[in-house]
């Protein structure tokens, strides 16, 4: 590299350092600096490219745009970053996946990151990872673990890195608040506020001010909390930190309601209630809908009060379901981790046993070949036993989720997975469709040709349909000859097109390979999400009504149910051309 190129590289590193600092002090300036860097990115090294796109993702995280943040991080990874840059990208990835409810992926990234940095000598990288782990425990509600990890991060840092110190102090303060150690939390938030201000980290200073407000809010000291929230809100506006701004506004709506200022309470509540239906907004929208319900009740508008309370209850249910999804993902990650550790420990013990036995053989100087062979056999046997146990565990887990004959999801697993996807679709305002399918006159096949032929038909139909589906479809055997396809993000028209393709392919199955010559046909009922749907059950019910109509219309056809206010005989059921 020439001297000029080296100098330019150093200048760009300084420029990226300046962007990182601006993200903590002035978001508008940071955005301008990022745009300028992107305009000349062809001059950057691979490592600098990774840093730039990592900083771009941080900007999107502040703005609450987690989809764009994820894209920026994916772009950063294409430049094969190393060391601290790679660690930062992993940590941002974890944050983004949690925000997007991809909890299993977040835990996997966390585990990958810890495995990667285990042998690093740089404590700063480890402390950053511990701080992110504390944040994960906060999301899970595991506050004791959060307290333990944040204390560990502080003991490792011991003030060496002010930025890490600030984050660790803040997380420790939050842990004490969540555990209702109010006096300790208030003192820690004050200490964090002073420390971060002195070390030029205003964003964490603002978080500490808000934390002090949260302590007073939880203690019911609303007037004192209000003044702190207003200071934090004004300063957050400079950073355009949407998530934090929305949360403070929701708290202010509660405070003004309790102080009797219903106009101010309603103003802040409506600001929050107008937010998009995204996972990051569910908690604050629940809080303000409860406030709006109380205000409407105070003013005698009981119909509105009821409507707001219904929305608040639906959001509360979604939050509870989301917490269950988090906990299940976390438990699965822990289970896999424990299994891996157990297998590794067993293998290490086997290895140590082998060494000890070999030493004994050498000392005794007798039967060396026989004993060595025996030990190798023992080691191989134990290893095979471990592998067998691991494969058996996976097999049992798969068997518990799959239908024994067809290999697709059984009813319990399929509906649980679909319910989780449905909650996410409702939260994001996305489409969701359900298709119920039933093999026509299947009993006649069993009666005429025997149950073995019937099983052949079920497996063949499952194979034909499975080849037509993508990874987002949840293909489920509901029982007997009835199947379901749950389709997240799919509109009714897309579901109807797929139903017609399935109907046509099934009708074209060559049954001679079963040993008999007959025709297989299938009927389909389709329904799509309605704004009043609060769970998956109404969609399944409407799809079942549509399936009934398909059978009534002569079978071998697909029917879309598009009027939830009419009984099954409604003429609003649209019949799709069957090709008969």
From TrEMBL:
Highest rank taxon of the organism: Bacteria
Top EC category: transferase
Catalyzed chemical reaction(s): 2 GTP = 3',3'-c-di-GMP + 2 diphosphate
Residue span, GGDEF domain: 430-563
Residues spanning the membrane: 369-391
Keyword annotations from UniProtKB, A to Z: Membrane, TPR repeat, Transmembrane, Transmembrane helix
Keyword set includes Membrane: yes
One Pfam assignment: GGDEF
EC number: 2.7.7.65
Residue ranges that the Swiss-Prot or TrEMBL entry lists as coiled coil: none
Gene3D superfamilies referenced in this protein's UniProt entry, alphabetically: 3.30.70.270, Tetratricopeptide repeat domain
InterPro entries in UniProt: Diguanylate_Cyclase, GGDEF_dom, Nucleotide_cyclase, Rev_trsase/Diguanyl_cyclase, TPR-like_helical_dom_sf, TPR_rpt
Placement of TPR repeats on the sequence: 50-83
Entry-linked PANTHER family: DIGUANYLATE CYCLASE DGCM-RELATED, REGULATORY COMPONENTS OF SENSORY TRANSDUCTION SYSTEM
NCBIfam families per UniProt: GGDEF (TIGR00254)
Protein name: diguanylate cyclase
Source organism per UniProt: Shewanella psychromarinicola
